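Repro case for the chain-ordering regression, as requested:
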Amino acid sequence: MEFLLNNNSQINPAGLKAIAHMPTTSLGVLMDEGYTQRLSDKDFMRIAVYLAEKSYHEGGCPIGAVIVDNKTGRIVGKGHNTLVQESHPYNHGETAAIRDAGRIDFSQTTLYTSLSPCDVCATLLYMRGFGRVVVGDVTNADGNENLLREKGIQVDILEDMLGIELYARFRAEKPHQDMEDWQGMSAVNKT
Amino acid sequence: MEFLLNNNSQINPAGLKAIAHMPTTSLGVLMDEGYTQRLSDKDFMRIAVYLAEKSYHEGGCPIGAVIVDNKTGRIVGKGHNTLVQESHPYNHGETAAIRDAGRIDFSQTTLYTSLSPCDVCATLLYMRGFGRVVVGDVTNADGNENLLREKGIQVDILEDMLGIELYARFRAEKPHQDMEDWQGMSAVNKT
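-- result from build under test --
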């Protein structure tokens, strides 16, 4: 049992949640290659949703993202919205995960986001040359999937009900925070 | 002499450079209201250029930005590109200054950038409702000024030769770093 998550481990919420919360650079002490290789699109999306849930419990906006290397299947970046936590006016799930990944070539990676990307994040995704983007919620927001496809990115929709319900709950509870996150404080002040 | 920079101080490079390097939240101990009120568009642009110079000396991309409250004339955010310094794949001058300013209403502010904004930064500028943007270099890059104007932002061009020469020197010295900053590592790997 060199690793908590190994080839014999069941893939379950406890493991995926631990992956979401573990710093990316330390994931190698949590799980071995055998476990990593068995993670599916659905599992990576669920990790993004657990990151969204982490943000929600911190009082933040519940949106998370995970970036996976297509060849190795390893997570190379992940993160969640930090509007509240860092008083950060534009750090969304996608920007957080890209910041976490650092200066890598994103063309051979897939980004999983728990919510459809905003204009800024969509622009960043094509400016950084992503090869594939998987979107976990086109119910609470949508629209930029077409822009990404026009830019040559493979876009897949893989809705995760846990994330969709969480975001809908957040939006009902904190409509101003939701609006600030999308359109900035200037839009909130106009209401 | 309660302040190093006061109503009697000449506005010169030493003072503007000190402002560029001083943390934003500490600017109130460096200069008084009388000095602050006399700063012009040209001075704020030069502060953005000194931030670009700071980044250049750190081995980074020489692009800086300053955000000023239109009513008070106070600097509420500033920063420079940190691609190299933070291994940050998209932190440009504008994003750095906006992050520094935090969760404020940007509609009553002006952003001074030493270089014409990229697609991501231009998108962020209108998504965060900026009222006015002043661009210090449309020689080394340009194009998104029209997009900003279409979105209702007042855009003024105020070229600063110190910044333009600095950016041209950087681009000649480190063409790959320049390309990575605009198009990401995937574009560099294709060359």
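Ordering looks correct now. The radius of gyration of chain A is 16 Å.
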